[in-house]
Amino acid sequence: MIRRIPTTIDDFRERARRRLPRFLYDYYAGGSGRERTLAANATDWDTVRLRQRVLVDVDAIDTATQMAGEDCTMPLALAPIGLGGMAARRGEIQALAAAEQAGVPFTLSTVGICGLDELAEAAERPFWFQLYMIRDREIVDTVIDRAWAAGCRTVVFTVDLPMPGPRHRDTRNGMAVPGARAKFLKIGQVLSRPRWLWAVPLRGGPMSLGTMNPHVPAASDPDSFRRWIDTQFDPTVTWSDIDWLRAKWKGRLLLKGILDTEDAERAVAAGVDGIVVSNHGGRQLDGVASTAIKLAEIVRTVDSRAEVLVDGGIRGGIDVYRALALGASGVLIGRAWIWALAGGGRAGLDQTLAGIRDELRLAMALTGVKRIADIGPDCLDSKG
Fold first, then answer.
1. Are 264 and 298 a contacting pair, CB within 8 Å?
2. What is d(CA 208, CA 218) in angstroms, rounded to the nearest whole number?
């Protein structure tokens, strides 16, 4: 049977669903609780209507901008994804290469399969590093120093994970569930995907948490990964830890997980360089607002005192445009790059990033703007 050519993120997601073991696909795809916030993250962008303009000279459109002080071909970065390297063989390395070719930043997760040292060897430009504050502060201190030594100059500190949200898909698939039944369930799912088994675990090993491997015992399987999260993520983290991190880290510091104006104000007061308006992709507290709904009021609160980025449900260049019109200086995409890589390999991710930029350029053309700096609230249809 001849399958259709994948074109959209949804096309690549369907391919990824067929290629990945069920527990891994659901780990990437799932949200917390009943997944209401997960769904709202995507659908609420559709309520933001653009103001179409015509007969404007848009011959020389430029999507270039700066994010975290870095020149980018478009206002987009690849977000950190835990276990992202299991989507394809050495997945984070492939994603890094695609991001560099596209001229946008890549963010390595603390719990990525590929580690800081491996990325540093492959990188041709500085990549970003996402950090969790775990209980053992000596480990955090060591990892920060390693990130700087690896060439990272931007740390994205995730603040909305004092404890993991209830992700029912993971439980149904036997992730971090004790007993033989759960173990055999996962084994069966892996054996049902022989191409993935051959390409990723067998030929793409080691399957361990690259950056954390020196610090985390037996981190080579999903159960160990989830148990480590349950025991090491720290519910006692407060703003004083941000003060410590700000004093420690010499580069740019972004706080990811801000969804409230008071927290945005505190972040600015703490001296961070930027914030990422985020609800962890709908994976933490089900029932909170989508990032599309919260973005504009947080931008007004920050009032240009720090950079404001946003993630959650971004699926194309039009969504990027919407975020910019609401006041963000850029976006992060997570599931979008995972689906492209898992469903189409490096070529699929290259195609997706090029497609996002093309769609952004089209949106700029049909709203009569040539530069990223020209996109603002007046580009929205207030009556739409």
1. yes
2. 8
Answer for the pair 258, 295: CB distance below 8 angstroms, yes or no. Answer: no
Query: Token match 């993991």: residue?
Result: 164
**Which residues are designated catalytic?**
280
Q: What is the DSSP string of 298-314?
A: HHHHHTTSSEEEE-SS-
Distance between CA 228 and CA 214 in Å, rounded?
A: 14
- The phi and psi torsions of 332 (rounded to 5 degrees) equal -120, 140
Query: Which residue's structure tokens are 């981190």?
Result: 219
Number of helices (H), then strands (E), in the chain: 15, 10
H or E stretch covering 70: strand 70-72
Q: How far apart are CA 70 and CA 66, in angstroms?
A: 5
How does pLDDT run across 76-94, given as a tens digit for each residue?
999 999 999 999 999 999 9
3 state SS of 47: helix
The beta strands (E) that lie in 231-302 are given as 252-258, 274-277
CATH topology of domain 9-379: TIM Barrel (3.20.20)
* Three-state secondary structure of 124-173: CCCCEEEECCECCHHHHHHHHHHHHHCCCCEEEEECCCCCCCCCHHHHHC
Beta carbons within 10 angstroms of residue 332's beta carbon = 30
Residue range 289-310, pLDDT digits in tens: 999 999 999 999 999 999 999 9
Residue of 87, 119, 122 lying closest to 210 (CA atoms)? 119
Torsion over CA: 335, 336, 337, 340 (sign) = positive
Assess whether the previous peptide bond of 206 is cis (omega < 30° from 0).
Answer: yes
Using the structure block, give the residue that is written with the tokens 């973005």: 295
Residues 6+ apart with CB under 8 A from 105: 67, 68, 70, 72, 77, 78, 99, 127, 128, 154
> Does the model's pTM come out above 0.90?
yes
d(CA 174, CA 23): 8
Token digits for 168?
A: 């029912």
| Helix (H) or strand (E) segment spanning residue 78 | strand 76-78
